[in-house]
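sanity check this record:
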Amino acid sequence: MHYLKPIYHNNIGASYFLKNNLDSDFNMDRIQIIIGDVALILENKEVYAFLEIINSVKSGCKCNECKELNQITCNTSYTKLIFKSTKKNIIQLEDLVRGTIFELQMNALIN
């Protein structure tokens, strides 16, 4: 059974430190990001890579065929993710990941 310690949340989702059991310390290298009904388990370095992907999607394609939807493709150590989102949701997703990274950095300074 996994246990979660909250890191950050906003309108689109939340992020948590992932813990395998109650007796162990929280593993600060495994992060679960929940977006709606989808839960992503990422390592610290993958959270930073995910932000880079979001930023590249946010800058967008310049062709005439692209309208409001954007595709995010991300490879994690567990699986490959592909999902489409609106610009508004991408901004919220960026906030979620940036807030998570901020809290990770603060936690690293404190501990």
